[in-house]
Every structure is written in structure tokens, then in C-alpha cells.
Specification:
It contains 9 helices and 5 strands. With 259 residues, the protein is mostly helical. Strands 1-2-3 form a 3-stranded parallel β-sheet, with helices on one face. Strands 4-5 form a two-stranded antiparallel ribbon. Strand 4 (164-166) and strand 5 (172-173) form a beta hairpin.
């Protein structure tokens, strides 16, 4: 978390950080292990070289006082695991202003990776914004898992009937919703009838298409009827098993990080 502060206007650190301290009372890090892992970096702008040490010392002492006053409830320990950096930043017109950017980048690059894909990060941010708007202070992980379950449930009819996440306007394969990578499982192009499926074909139509697509469909008049029906059922069962295995892997892939 980067927080930019003007040294001339921010000498009263307690008042400046009141919103941080207030949020530490509401938010609950133990219930949200994927959050509250980042250091707090205080960037004090427009600082000349001769004032660097003094300003850093002054801010450090005042933050130390906040920790002493608030004890275990202080926001630095509660929301940032005690990680605090104070960076005096040179004035914008100086050459030194631009020299600190590589240093700041190196510090950011050393951060522990908490979101392995852009889709996962986007999901977290959208959920956080929705929870903040609704004043929902419950565990983030529960909200995200619930949202993912609802999304998969909405896509399930298309997944079972067509082996696709979306059918219209453009077909979209089953994929991991975090990294957008398709699920690498064998499937069949067959379309199945699903009770209550809004876009799936009727039972009779689906069965007729599946039967005619069977390579041994034309052998009906050359083998006993019972054997022909038994073989047709075995063929359709194999297609169903392919689809079910594909959908099961798709679901597993999309709920793995919530388990």
C-alpha cells in the first residue's frame, strides 16, 4: 500500500492516519488470510537531501507512538503485519526525483506473490468493491467462494448440454475462470438434452441426432435388435462419460483455490 504525504501538511500523524486506524477496528485479518499481507509505504514528497534523516526519524517516532497508544489494535500491526517503510521523495524538478523509481520497483518486486493470475486479482478487486459498497465486513474468502459457486451453477446447463461455458453469441470453451486457460480434457461435440436447460435440444431431437451420428447406426437390420440397442446405449454412455468428466474437471479447476 503506497500512501503519499506532504511533509508540510502532515506533521500530525495521528490525525492523518485516523482512517487507517478506524478501518483496523472493522476489518478482520484472521478471517481474510489472502489480504493484509502488504507493507505500508509512506512516501513524503518534496523533501530536500538535507532533511531526509530528520524527516524519516520524526515520522518513525510518531508511528512508534501510535503503536504504543493503540497497542495490539494499531493498524500497522493489524493490517500490515508490522511492515512499514518511510521514503522521503525529492522535489519533482530535481534529478534525484527520478532515481528512486528503480529502488521502489525493486522493493515491489520482492513482494510475496499473492495473486497468481490477472483474472484471480480482478475477481478479488470486484468482490472487495462490492463488499465495501454493501458495508459487508464478512470474510472475503466466503464471499468469493459463494460468487464462484453461483457463477458455475449458472454455466452448468451449457457445460453439460454443449461442453461450453457460453453458446451465444460466440461459443466459449470450458476454461479456468482465473487464467482463461481452456480445460484440457477430451470431449465430444455431441449436444445432450438437459431437463430445464434453456438452450438444450429436446429429448427426442437429441436422441435422434446422437443415434444417427453413431457409426454403426446403419447396422440395425444386420444384427439382432437387442444387441443393436445395447451397443447404441453403450455408445451414448461413453459420450456422456466424456462430457461428465470434462465438466467435473472444469468445476474442480475453478474451485481448487477455495478449498
Amino acid at each position: 500500500v503506497l500512501f503519499r504525504s506532504n511533509f508540510a501538511l502532515s506533521r500530525d500523524i495521528a490525525s492523518l492516519c485516523q482512517s487507517f486506524q478506524s478501518s483496523s477496528i472493522v476489518l478482520d485479518p484472521p478471517s481474510n488470510p489472502s489480504l493484509f499481507q502488504s507493507p505500508l509505504v509512506i512516501i513524503i514528497k518534496d523533501v530536500v537531501d538535507s532533511d531526509n534523516a530528520e524527516i524519516t526519524r520524526e515520522f518513525a517516532l510518531k508511528f512508534q507512538q501510535i503503536v504504543q497508544d493503540e497497542q495490539e489494535a494499531n493498524f500497522i500491526s493489524h493490517l500490515h503485519a508490522g511492515q512499514l517503510n518511510i521514503i522521503p521523495w525529492p522535489v519533482i524538478e530535481s534529478q534525484e526525483f527520478y532515481k528512486l523509481f528503480p529502488t521502489l520497483k525493486r522493493r515491489l518486486d520482492k513482494q510475496k506473490l499473492t495473486h497468481h493470475t490477472a483474472g484471480e486479482f480482478l475477481h478479488v478487486m470486484k468482490t472487495l468493491m462490492a463488499k465495501l459498497k454493501a458495508n459487508d465486513w464478512g470474510a472475503l474468502s466466503q464471499s468469493m467462494a459463494s460468487h464462484r459457486a453461483q457463477l458455475l451453477l449458472a454455466m452448468l446447463p451449457n457445460a453439460l448440454a454443449f461442453g461450453l461455458q457460453e453458446v451465444n453469441p460466440d461459443p466459449e470453451p470450458l476454461k479456468n475462470l482465473d487464467d482463461d486457460v481452456p480445460i484440457g480434457m477430451p470431449d465430444t461435440p455431441a449436444e445432450f438434452s438437459l431437463a430445464g436447460g434453456p438452450q438444450s435440444p429436446s429429448r427426442e431431437t437429441a436422441l435422434q441426432v446422437l443415434s444417427h451420428a453413431w457409426e454403426d447406426y446403419g447396422s440395425r437390420h444386420h444384427v439382432p435388435e437387442d444387441l443393436w440397442i445395447e451397443n447404441l446405449i453403450a455408445h451414448i454412455d461413453s459420450l456422456v462419460n466424456l462430457r461428465v468428466a470434462h465438466v467435473r474437471e472444469w468445476i474442480s479447476s475453478n474451485v481448487a483455490r477455495f478449498q
